[in-house]
Amino acid sequence: MEYVGEVKAHSIYDEVLVKALEDNLAIVRFDTNKRVTYVNDNFAHALKYRKEDVLGKEHKTFCFPDFYNSPDYVELWNNLLNGVSFQDKIMRKNAYGEVIWLEATYFPIYDALGNRVIGVSKVATDITERQLKIEAVTQELLELSKSMAVSSRNGISKGEDLLEKSKAMIRESNDSTENLSELLKKNESVKSIVKTIQDIASQTNLLALNASIEAARSGKYGLGFGVIAEEVKRLSKQVHESAENIKLDVQAVTNNIDLVVDGNTHLKEHIEQSEKEIHVAISEFNGIAAESDKISRQADELDTII
Questions:
Q1: Nearest one of 166, 167, 169 to 177, comparing CA atoms
Q2: Any idea where the Methyl-accepting transducer domain is (predicted)?
Q3: Which candidate, 227, 229, 228, 223, places its Cα nearest to that of 210?
């Protein structure tokens, strides 16, 4: 009597377990010809069929052509009919030709002796909503990755353009500095010439003074000579004054050149600092591009794994 009670208890437990599976999972069975021999409400509802319309249908009715015409489809059924189970996320087709995603397990059913496969059962869970959310997130990640890649490429391109422009500015600054240096040398030459003129004017003035003294000593015989001496003296003074003005102008030009040279030097330093910062920016953009590629790969892996 005790053994009978245990058997009865196990039987009740099995019934409860089967009912729980029926209530919560989509279940379908196929014969060895891949036709449906049993289907529960959950499976029919998930694929938007009436139960009676599912019975007798071929398995490929629920698959898209690119799958049931592929070697993978042949391999799936060869393995199942040879006793090999299969579990994975699968894409199937509902009654309206729409995509449905299932987390499914196929397993072979053996005869009473356990020697021969007489059918295949599939238990599944509808994960379409979850899969669509995953695909949406994955797509957003891919779009973000593309956007980051485009932005980083644009940043790198603009940075490289700026580098070229800054190098051109440095070249022009160097050329300008060299030209100004040459001008400074010429200014020094002009200063030297002006000094020579001033020296000559001073000597001429001294000679004119001596001539005037000698003319005065000569009395009326030196009057004409004295007039010439005074004119020479006057011209010598004008030359000296003109040379002095030229000297002042040259010095002013020199001072301005010094200011421009200093300005060019500071500009060059700023440009070189900007180049360093641009190199840093380009490096950061390259880092963004690398992260973008990483996000893209991870998004693909996420879609594959989940």
A1: 169
A2: 120-306
A3: 229
User: How much is the mean pLDDT over the chain?
Assistant: 78
Alpha carbons within 13 A on the beta-carbon side of 275 = 14
Is 40:28 a contact under the CB 8 Å cutoff?
yes
pTM summary value: 0.53
**Position 65 pLDDT exceeds 60:** yes
Nearest CA to 60 among 41, 33, 78? Answer: 33
Which segments of 60-127 does DSSP mark as H helices, in order? 65-68, 71-81
Query: What tokens appear for 215 in the block?
Result: 């003319």
2-126 architecture in CATH? 2-Layer Sandwich (3.30)
Cα separation, 89 vs 124, whole angstroms: 9
3-state secondary structure of 36: strand
Cβ atoms within 10 Å, residue 41: 12
Match domain 135-305 to its CATH number in 1.20.1530.20, 3.40.50.300, 1.10.287.950, 1.25.40.10.
1.10.287.950
Q: In the chain, which segments carry CATH 3.30.450.20?
A: 2-126
DSSP for residue 114: S
Strand partners, 36: 30
Distance (Å, whole) CA 58 – CA 93: 13
Are the CB atoms for 175 and 196 separated by under 8 Å? no
Instruction: Answer yes or no: is pLDDT of 85 > 90.
Output: yes
Q: How far apart are CA 80 and CA 68, in angstroms?
A: 15
- Between CA 169 and CA 278 the distance in angstroms is 15
Sheet holding 117-126, edge to edge: 36-39, 26-30, 117-126, 99-110, 86-93
Amino acid at 216: A
What's residue 7's pLDDT?
46
Mean pLDDT score, 52-57: 96
Q: What is the pLDDT of residue 251?
A: 73
